[in-house]
Amino acid sequence: MRKVYDRFVLGTVCSLIIAVTFVARSGAEIDTAHVVGAWLLDENEGNVAKDVSGDGNDGKLLNGAKWDAGKFGSGLLFDGVDDNVQIPSSAGDKLNPDTQITIAAWIQRHDAEESPGYMIVGRMDTVQSRTYYLAFWENKFQMEVSHDGTAGNRTVMESIEEIVDMEWHHIAGTFDGDEMIIYVDGAPAGQAPPFIAGEGGIHQNDSDVFIGYDKVDGGFFFNGLIDEVIILDIALAEKDIVTLMEDGLRQTLVVSPAGNLATLWATLKRSSH
User: Fold this and answer.
1) Beta bridge pairs of residue 39
2) Alpha-carbon separation of residue 187 from 170, 171, 184, 239, 246 (angstroms)
3) CA–CA separation, 171 vs 168, rounded Å?
4) pLDDT tens sequence for the chain (273 residues)
């Protein structure tokens, strides 16, 4: 009988590992099946930014991007000249959602002047093959989704208030196929009507994804720190954006760090006595 119970406990643990979810203290849950890329940027050494989504979308640090203190653990420091992270991709892969998307990251700018433009995260190949981006333009945060690869049919939203300080800010953008929302520090900061309104799904291309660099315009390199980047193929609700911001990706992910699984296993063992 004990063997049967042990098998049951083991099976329960395995099921929980396989069906992993993001769990917030508030009770909100984010199904990790929708996470297409998540970079904690906690390596603090080497030239690889590890993707913890399980899809192997690791990024390569280029041109001197450096590890530094981040919002949670370490993060990446970009010089605003040529530093960036390149994440290899291909047409039709998970990093190219076709209908919905969420992009989020922590950022801290390092220049006091009005920014002409910084790319935070983007999948942009050429002017005629655009997909999506989350960026910082002229002291406002901006998100774009191209519907046909061009600038002629795209949806763009920007935050209402200017950000002129050099503090940490959590930035997120969501698109559900119809509505686009920008969140700054967990609160909606830009919503319908959009700055530019287009129609359709998300354009598919074979461009790489870049952190801190706009390939289309050959520049707009980020100047400052970026931490905890995540891309999902759904439009998260506000409560889920707050969860990512408050808990951080490492604490929110049930599967990360052995500590969480060890605690779960200990709890199941105690229940058997």
Assistant:
1) 51, 229
2) 10, 9, 6, 9, 12
3) 10
4) 555 444 544 454 444 443 344 343 444 567 788 999 999 999 999 999 999 988 899 999 999 999 999 999 999 999 999 999 999 986 558 999 999 999 999 999 998 676 678 899 998 776 556 789 999 988 899 999 988 877 778 888 889 888 889 999 999 999 999 899 999 999 999 765 566 777 888 888 888 999 999 877 667 899 999 999 999 999 999 999 999 999 998 877 654 443 222 232 232 233 333
Render 219-256 in DSSP notation, one character per residue. Answer: B---EEEEEEEEEESS---HHHHHHHHHHHHHHHBTTS
Interior angle at CA 211, CA 42 and CA 29, nearest 5: 60
Angle formed at CA 240 by CA 267 and CA 196, multiple of 5 degrees: 160
User: What is the helix, strand, coil percentage profile of the chain, to 5?
Assistant: 20, 40, 45
Q: Is 219 exposed, middle or buried (0-12, 13-18, 19+ CB in 10 A)?
A: middle
| DSSP codes, 117-182 | -EEEEEEEEETTEEEEEEEEETTEEEEEEESSSSSSSEEEEE-SS---S-S-EEEEEEE-SS-EEE
Distance CA 59, CA 69 (A): 19
Look at the pTM and tell me if it is higher than 0.85. no
Q: How far apart are CA 104 and CA 244, in angstroms?
A: 9
CA distance 1 to 47: 51
Q: Is the peptide bond before 188 cis (omega within 30 degrees of 0)?
A: no
**Distance in angstroms (rounded) separating the CA atoms of residues 146 and 133:** 9
